[in-house]
């Protein structure tokens, strides 16, 4: 345990969980050069304990583990790509991943079907264009999410791309921060509509203004302790104001607090959210101040109504005469062929840039207004349409048990089938955000959805079947609110019809201009429980 003396938490090794002991024996980043060796000696040569460290290379074993395929995530800080990078991502999927590409809820790209012998070449191809899978997973700072419109956004206070770039340089492959108690998620956005989903991240920076020495200074407020999974916590604001040039120092300080004081005895209590919940924001700020020095108190919060992270359609940029075109990727699943076409369209109509969005969608920016109509006629935009129907346009899904070893249920096909059913039967003029997770880890972020589905199993007369709990009323306006889970489980085959009854309840009983979450507040969760009970009873008789 070479690093034992380096870290203060390593003094009492017996109290550490088994993963912590594994990390003390060998840092997660040290597995990256070893992958070259395993690529030569084959999958069977990889020691079992190494697979836990593979996460630091951005790799998980795909389901079923014994088949020797890997899932890989690729970091895309704040979602910004150039067309060359998009083509390389497409080439990797075509050559090694059966042409499959998923866009994730953290603006990353995810592959499946990768073999160990191909991983070194994938690393090389990605690295040549400035892309990395390193630390896209593991107990370390993961992909930095934020405003996908950074630099072009009429609703941003400042361009956050330089800040995100400095954060990426600071944290990526830095062994000072590669051994954290658990995964660590950072969000940076100056968009007034909370494009970076601040409240569900470990640390987040959101736009603020403070008068200092008679000058109105644009900067950030800081949130800590957010996170989902089976014990979700909403992040809390610290009482400090941070200038743009101070963001990196503050982020480093918060990360050190987590590294040195975060819990390492039980994995299920190791996220930063538990430390913040126990300490409270006041004590957390006190400890942080001992590291980074005093900062001004909070200023004026600039966050307005949350837009859910949706940017589909044609919209003006802050640059005169230019537009961005937001495209819907149904449930986040696309292909190498479509990525090649995205790169071509970005070069032909825009500036060669493509942006990924935390709602699993993409954006083509910098399109001259007089060229928008021609772009809209391109064949790719028939499927990746900027004008999706209501339900498919606001649907989010995790990977599900098609590939994920943790998932209990299938998700993407279920969600696709559900939204097609709803769009064919209900005409609705406002969005209802539908999210599904196949397990409690919440990659599909179901807790912040208008209607969230969580997969599990249900015992029936025909045996165990896939089923889902239903939750209603989540959002990230203001401080945010997680949705409330209703009682009962819905068999997978019944999900479309059951959700139809809940949506029609809203459509028929809402007041003018009333959003779904406002409707939940007004009528109460009990009213939705009653509708669900009726729908379940009806499903049982069919």
Give structural notes.
The chain is an alpha+beta fold. 32% of the residues lie in helices and 20% in strands. The protein has helices at residues 18-25, 31-41, 50-53, 83-96, 119-128, 161-171, 247-261, 272-292, 336-349, 372-376, 380-383, 412-425, 495-509, 516-523, 525-541, and strands at 59-61, 70-74, 80-82, 100-103, 109-114, 145-146, 186-188, 203-212, 215-224, 236-242, 300-301, 313-316, 322-327, 333-335, 353-356, 362-368, 395-397, 434-437, 451-460, 463-472, 484-485, 490-491. Strands 6, 7, 8, 9, 10 and 11 form a six-stranded mixed sheet that branches. The radius of gyration is 23 Å and the shape is globular.
Helix content estimate: 25-40%
Helical stretch tally: 15
Q: Biggest β-sheet, characterized?
A: 6 strands, mixed
Average predicted local confidence, pLDDT: 96
Structural class: alpha+beta
Tell me the strand percentage band.
15-25%
Shape from CA axes?
globular
Low-pLDDT segments? 1-5
**Count of beta strands:** 22
Computed CA radius of gyration, to the nearest angstrom:
23 Å
* Amino- and carboxy-terminal Cα gap: 61 Å
In short:
The protein has 542 residues and is α+β, with helices and mostly antiparallel strands. The protein contains 15 helices and 22 strands.
Summarize the SSE layout with pairings.
Blueprint: H1 18-25, H2 31-41, H3 50-53, E1 59-61, E2 70-74, E3 80-82, H4 83-96, E4 100-103, E5 109-114, H5 119-128, E6 145-146, H6 161-171, E7 186-188, E8 203-212, E9 215-224, E10 236-242, H7 247-261, H8 272-292, E11 300-301, E12 313-316, E13 322-327, E14 333-335, H9 336-349, E15 353-356, E16 362-368, H10 372-376, H11 380-383, E17 395-397, H12 412-425, E18 434-437, E19 451-460, E20 463-472, E21 484-485, E22 490-491, H13 495-509, H14 516-523, H15 525-541
Helix pairs in contact: 4-9, 6-7, 7-8, 12-13, 13-15
Pfam families: NIR_SIR, NIR_SIR_ferr
Domain Nitrite/Sulfite reductase ferredoxin-like: 65-129, 315-379
InterPro entries: NIR_SIR_4Fe-4S (IPR051329), NiRdtase/SiRdtase_haem-b_fer (IPR005117), Nit/Sulf_reduc_fer-like_dom_sf (IPR036136), NO2/SO3_Rdtase_4Fe4S_dom (IPR006067), NO2/SO3_Rdtase_4Fe4S_sf (IPR045854), NO2/SO3_Rdtase_FeS/sirohaem_BS (IPR006066)
């Amino acid at each position: 345990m070479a690093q034992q003396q380096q870290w203060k938490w390593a003094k009492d090794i017996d109290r550490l969980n088994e993963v912590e002991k594994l990390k003390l024996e060998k840092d997660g980043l040290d597995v990256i050069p070893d992958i070259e060796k395993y690529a030569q000696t084959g999958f069977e040569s990889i020691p079992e304990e190494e697979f836990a460290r593979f996460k630091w290379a951005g790799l998980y074993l795909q389901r079923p583990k014994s088949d020797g395929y890997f899932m890989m995530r690729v970091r895309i800080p704040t979602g910004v790509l150039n067309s060359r990078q998009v083509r390389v991502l497409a080439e990797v999927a075509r050559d090694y991943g059966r042409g499959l590409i998923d866009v994730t809820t953290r603006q990353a790209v995810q592959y499946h079907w990768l073999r160990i012998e191909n991983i070194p070449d994938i690393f090389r191809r990605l690295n040549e264009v400035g892309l990395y899978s390193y630390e896209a997973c593991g107990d370390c700072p993961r992909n930095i999410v934020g405003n996908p419109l950074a630099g072009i956004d009429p609703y941003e206070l400042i361009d956050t791309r330089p800040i995100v770039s400095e954060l990426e340089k600071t944290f990526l492959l830095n062994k000072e921060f590669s051994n954290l108690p658990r995964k660590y998620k950072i969000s940076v956005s100056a968009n007034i509509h909370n494009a970076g989903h601040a409240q569900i991240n470990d640390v987040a920076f959101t736009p603020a203004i403070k008068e200092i020495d008679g000058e109105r200074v644009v900067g950030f407020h800081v949130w800590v302790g957010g996170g989902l999974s089976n014990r979700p916590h909403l992040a809390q604001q610290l009482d400090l104001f941070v200038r743009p040039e101070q963001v990196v120092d503050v982020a480093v300080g918060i990360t050190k607090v987590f590294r040195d004081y975060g819990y390492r005895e039980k994995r299920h209590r190791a996220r930063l959210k538990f430390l913040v919940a126990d300490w409270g924001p006041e004590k957390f700020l006190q400890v942080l101040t001992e590291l980074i020095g005093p900062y001004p108190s909070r200023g004026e919060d600039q966050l307005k109504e949350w837009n859910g992270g949706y940017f589909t359609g044609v919209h003006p940029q802050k640059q005169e005469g230019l537009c961005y075109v937001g495209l819907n990727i149904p449930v986040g699943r696309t292909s190498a062929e479509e990525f090649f076409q995205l790169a071509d369209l970005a070069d032909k109509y825009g500036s060669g840039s493509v942006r990924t969005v935390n709602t699993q969608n993409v954006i083509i920016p910098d399109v001259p207004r007089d060229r928008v109509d021609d772009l809209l006629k391109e064949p790719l935009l028939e499927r990746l349409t900027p004008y999706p129907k209501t339900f498919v346009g606001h649907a989010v899904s995790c990977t599900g048990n098609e590939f994920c070893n943790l998932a209990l249920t299938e998700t993407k096909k279920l969600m696709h089938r559900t939204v097609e059913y709803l769009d064919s039967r209900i005409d609705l003029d406002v969005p209802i955000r539908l999210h599904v997770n196949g397990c409690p880890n919440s990659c599909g972020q179901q807790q912040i959805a208008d209607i969230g589905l969580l997969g599990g199993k249900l015992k029936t007369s025909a045996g165990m079947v896939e089923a889902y709990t239903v939750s209603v009323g989540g959002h990230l306006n203001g401080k945010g609110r997680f949705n409330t889970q209703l009682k009962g489980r819905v068999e997978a085959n019944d999900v479309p019809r059951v959700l139809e009854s809940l949506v029609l309840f809203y459509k028929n009983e809402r007041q003018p201009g009333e959003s779904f979450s406002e409707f939940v507040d007004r009528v109460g969760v009990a009213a939705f429980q009653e509708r669900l009970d009726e729908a379940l009873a009806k499903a049982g008789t069919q």
